[in-house]
Design a protein that fits this description.
Elements lengths: L2 H23 L7 H4 L1 H24 L6 H27 L6 H4 L1 H19 L3 H10 L1
Helix pairs in contact: 1-3, 3-4, 4-6
């Protein structure tokens, strides 16, 4: 799929999600928050399938399974799992389950350092295992 198609699909899913959120917040519909988040979960499922496909094709074509691409895919998979868990906890909180805010934010607090590390390593174009080996040798 071309980059343009992926971008348009992402914007379309986001637009549908925002319309559903506005309808729910404006109390025009009485749907559950889990129903409102369906477009985001559809997008997350498509991303998960795409990541699994990329990891499988990378493993098939690569001799070294700990190359930079495989580690990057693992970071993306961890971020996706944390995003879905944050969405589920947000829906539970919005439904009125009495979930404390700091419990709801745990996936976000875990995800921020993971994504910060991913961005930091991609900026300097360094391998994670190489960085960890250098830190161990000090």
């Amino acid at each position: 799929m071309a980059v343009l198609h992926r971008a348009l699909f992402t914007w379309f899913i986001t637009l549908i999600f925002l319309i559903l959120v506005v309808l729910r917040l404006d109390q025009r519909v009485r749907w559950s928050w889990f129903i409102v988040f369906v477009p985001m979960w559809l997008y997350d499922c498509i991303l998960l399938i795409y990541l699994i496909f990329l990891m499988g094709s990378h493993r098939r074509t690569s001799n070294d399974r700990w190359q930079r691409g495989a580690v990057r895919h693992m970071f993306c998979l961890a971020a996706l799992i944390l995003k879905v868990s944050a969405e589920i906890l947000l829906c539970l909180r919005l439904e009125g389950s009495g979930l404390k805010l700091y419990y709801m934010m745990i996936p976000v607090w875990i995800g921020l350092p993971v994504l910060t590390l991913d961005v930091f390593l991609s900026l300097f174009d360094r391998d994670i295992l190489e960085l960890l080996a250098n830190l161990r040798n000090r």
